[in-house]
Amino acid sequence: MARLGMDDSIVENVANQLIGHVAEQINSVITNITSLVHEASGAWDGPDAVHFQGDWDSAHRPNLQAIHDAVVEFGNKAKAEVEQQRQASGA
After folding, report:
1. What's 43's DSSP letter?
2. Under the phi-then-psi rule, with left for phi > 0, alpha for psi from -120 to 50, and beta for the rest, what region is 61?
3. CA-CA distance, 29 to 80, in Å (whole number)?
4. What pLDDT score does 1 carry?
5. What is the pLDDT of residues 30-46, one digit of tens each?
6. Closest CA to 41 of 33, 49, 32, 51
7. CA dist 27 → 16, 22, 88 (Å)
8. Which of 74, 77, 69, 86 has the alpha carbon at shortest distance from 30?
9. What radius of gyration, in Å, describes the C-alpha atoms of the chain?
């Protein structure tokens, strides 16, 4: 028989980890890569260097930021589902 419903404390924990720890890890990756790109840019001149920095600034960094935002949204959705479950079960 299939289970219906949720263990709200487990799902809430997952949501909190997505919103907190996982989102912080993604921000850390963005910060680390930004630092590395700036380090490379400080030691590299010319059009290829400009292109390298531009790729990070215009494409890769925004993509990682979008992933961060999606993970936070995903965690918030899980939190909302927990609240709905608690309301439905009268908890």
Report:
1. T
2. alpha
3. 27
4. 56
5. 999 999 999 999 999 99
6. 49
7. 16, 9, 35
8. 69
9. 20
